[in-house]
Hints:
Blueprint: E1 4-7, E2 10-12, E3 15-17, H1 20-28, E4 32-35, H2 42-48, E5 51-54, H3 81-96, E6 101-104, H4 106-114, E7 119-120, H5 123-126, E8 137-142, E9 153-157, E10 163-164, E11 171-177, E12 182-187, E13 193-196, H6 207-226
Parallel strand pairs: 1-4, 1-5, 5-6, 6-13
Antiparallel strand pairs: 2-3, 7-10, 8-9, 8-11, 11-12, 12-13
Helix pairs in contact: 2-3
Amino acid sequence: MKPIIGITGGLDGDSLRLRQDYVSAIVNSGGLPVVLPVYQQAAELSDLIDGLLLTGGADIPAYLYGGKDTVPEEYITLERKERIAFETELLREALRKEKPVLAVCYGMQLLNVHHGGTLFQDIEYQLDYVINHRKGMHDIDIVDLFNGALKGRYTVNSSHHQAVMDVGWGISVFALAGDGIVEGIYKRDYNFCVGVQWHPERIFYDPLSAWLFESLAVNAIRTSRSRR
């Protein structure tokens, strides 16, 4: 039986928005993708899935990590409050039930904030020098190995302007860009809970990106077996 992977999506007016790349990556990794609607009863939905994929989105407001707005408002595009609230509760429930989690871009930032971490609101505005993270490709280095992760240097895609500043409780960094921006985090002492700043679903041909989705599926199979 294929593991059921719940995929979150963004809100576009009254519609739910999700790139097909996420679905394809789950299918190609041996999972069964199920798109999750923004729904108040996150605990009930979490019971239906074996693993969770938190997808990309807009910006998390500073007050959610104890900060104040320090950049001009035109630099910020806030994510919808109802999506943030739903995914925060969904993440909490998934972790409580020890289900594997892969969090992408905004999803990684949400994972860090959920564990008490903070964010740069705009890295170009707040830091003296950063490479172009808004678009294009750049290198990352694996600085901490875990769960059999592939070591070395990789070239990843980039489309973000916010990033992890203070790492949350129980969270470790495993990948850095050349300018020091955190590109990958994971939850210590947990089966599989990983956040990445790039979009692995769009470069599934990359060994590291493929490994992320395959690891999510493998750990979700274990979850699936345990609940039968």
